[in-house]
Design a protein that fits this description.
The complex is a heterodimer of chains A (328) and B (210). Chain A is of the alpha+beta class. Chain A is globular, with a radius of gyration of 20 Å. Chain B has two domains: 121 residues, Periplasmic binding protein-like II (D-Maltodextrin-Binding Protein, domain 2), CATH 3.40.190.10; 85 residues, D-Maltodextrin-Binding Protein, domain 2 (3-Layer(aba) Sandwich). In chain B, a hairpin with a 5-residue loop joins strand 2 and strand 3. The two termini of chain B are 30 Å apart. Classes of the chains: A alpha+beta (328), B alpha/beta (210). The interface between A and B is medium-sized, with 26 and 25 residues.
Chain lengths: 328, 210
């Protein structure tokens, strides 16, 4: 018997395991309070499902193996794909909206030595399926905020929000080929201001200028107002409108200190179709959660409808809470 | 407080000079000591000095909020970081070099490439479908062709003198490399004001030079 355990795997023992369970219970009780039904999805599923749900690049990170009949299986690298399929098939007749939550481990191959080195992570997540618009977006943001404040992280967390259609509208207007669009996306995502300005010289567009000052991409309402001065295409303007509407709601709930607008968050454009969000907590070197609107997802399982959701990383949260003095 | 990881070696002096012009100074005493972590004079910034390849590691994990490191190191590490500023310091090129300038067309079959930058080298040749065998070395890469270990090398070049003295010429340039300011994604949001202040101070210092 070997004493080694595979890279990216770990034990939780005693107090740490207890803390982890407490965090999970807090999240699940908040979900329950908002009428989210718990769902337990299969741990093993066809690889096709995840490729359809997450896109090839992400799905490829799943652990894969073959079924008895030779079909490719995967240890689930995410839960959302499976919930979307369930909503579109098994529950296609159920009245909308559907509200589901889960606490489930997901498995992904990771490059060693990077910050997200774990290959098993437990996701605390929720999906709101069948309603679009600001009220649904706001509902999941409030859920995330409530979980974090119930974990005593009120002043320590920050949720960034964006609407990916702002970038999509600008890029569509530029008529870029796929590689150039991907380059522009990457330069904005990594805030490479100098390279971005160089890119602009070859593409005469005023609108992209909105993205060329990295420090002006993040902030409160003024970020939207600054963007409006430069961005005029209808698609982006509609997205700016809906982001501003969401921001107004956030302000009226008094949550604006915990939220930031980040127009530069363009990291998962293939997946999200409107709102995208990222969750950061002091003490965690990378994000502890992410989510957004993915209206295109259930359509790939045969029943197109709006959907929005997010996941929190239970292991990252446990680590932060384990290190801070004020426990749950 | 913001922690800045600085790559030791060729980057270090240029980085400290630039930071000083941006109003962020280390005391004489701290500069002359062998301590690997020191505070600046205002106590707002903490500097840590680490090997270049470790800068992206410290910053990606959020142990350091920011870092100053060469683009060559970033390309090699593929770390997930924000890159808001090109500092223009420690400028150099990443090149393919060989004894024969026409080597690319002459080698038959598999090309053997000696390098410290295996990621950059395999990406460069891979993008054009050229099959290569990467031989990972940790220094004195210029020796490899002369001794018959490899057909070519991929390495950093500043003046080209080391290459010439070892009988090598540049076959291709892969990329230019300069010192970059890198920022951790979480720090960029959670310490937004402090990070923005640092970026602005450095930007002002950079523009002053031109």
């Amino acid at each position: 018997m070997t004493s080694r355990i595979p890279a990216g795997m770990r034990y939780y023992i005693g107090a740490e395991a207890r803390l982890r369970r407490t965090v999970e219970d807090v999240a699940m009780s908040v979900f329950e309070g908002w009428n989210y039904e718990e769902v337990i999805t299969p741990s093993v599923d066809y690889y096709d499902l995840f490729e359809q749900g997450m896109g090839q690049r992400e799905a490829q990170r799943g652990f894969r193996f073959t079924d008895n009949d030779g079909r490719l299986l995967a240890l689930r690298p995410d839960v959302t794909s499976s919930v979307a399929r369930m909503a579109a098939t098994l529950l296609s007749e159920r009245p909308r909206p559907l509200r589901f939550c889960y606490a489930a481990p997901v498995f992904r191959q990771q490059t060693q030595s990077h910050a997200e080195w774990r290959r098993e992570n437990t996701q605390l997540g929720c999906e709101l399926i069948g309603v679009g618009g600001t009220p649904a977006d706001l509902e999941v943001l409030r859920l995330a905020a409530e979980i974090l404040s119930r974990l005593n992280l009120q002043s320590l967390y920050c949720i960034t929000i964006n609407n990916v259609e702002i970038f999509n509208g600008v890029a569509a207007n530029l008529n870029l080929e796929t590689p150039a669009r991907e380059q522009l996306r990457r330069l904005i995502d990594t805030r490479e201001a100098a390279e971005l300005r160089q890119f602009l010289q070859n593409h005469a567009s005023n609108e992209v200028r909105a993205f060329s000052q990295p420090t002006q991409l993040t902030g409160k309402r003024e970020v939207i107002q600054a963007a409006r001065k430069v961005i005029t295409n209808a698609r982006s303007v509609a997205a700016l409108d809906s982001l501003e509407e969401l921001w107004t709601e956030i302000e009226s709930l008094g949550l604006q200190d915990s939220f930031e607008i980040d127009l530069g968050d363009v990291s998962s454009l293939d997946y999200y179709t409107g709102l995208s969000l990222k969750i950061f907590v002091h003490g965690a070197g990378s994000g502890v959660g992410r989510g957004g609107r993915y209206d295109g997802l259930t359509g790939s399982f045969g029943r197109p409808e709006p959907a929005v959701g997010f996941v929190l990383n239970l292991d990252a949260l446990t680590e932060v809470l384990g290190r801070t003095v004020s426990q749950v | 407080m913001i922690t800045i990881a600085i790559a030791k070696g060729r980057m270090q002096d240029g980085a400290l000079l630039l930071l000083a012009r941006a109003g962020i100074c280390l005391s004489e005493e701290a500069l002359n000591s062998r301590r690997l972590a020191s505070l600046d004079e205002t106590g707002r910034y903490r500097f840590i000095f680490v090997k270049p390849a470790d800068v992206p590691v410290y910053v990606e994990h959020g142990i350091a909020d920011c870092g100053v490191v060469g683009r060559d190191v970033l390309l090699e590490s593929e770390a997930d970081l924000l890159l808001p500023l090109d500092l223009g310091i420690a400028r150099c090129r990443i090149v393919v070099a060989a004894a024969d300038a026409q080597a690319m067309t002459k080698v038959q079959g598999m090309i053997r490439v000696a390098t410290k930058y295996s990621q950059i080298a395999s990406a460069h040749f891979g993008a054009r479908g050229i099959p290569v065998e990467i031989i990972q070395l940790s220094g004195s890469v210029e020796l490899a062709p002369a001794l018959g270990l490899a057909d070519m090398i991929v390495d950093l070049v500043e003046t080209g003198r080391t290459l010439r003295e070892n009988g090598l010429t540049i076959v291709e340039e892969i990329a230019e490399s300069t010192g970059r300011l890198v920022v951790n994604r979480a720090s960029y949001q959670l310490k937004a004001e402090e990070v923005a202040r640092l970026i602005q101070a450095l930007e002002t210092a950079l523009n002053g030079k031109q």
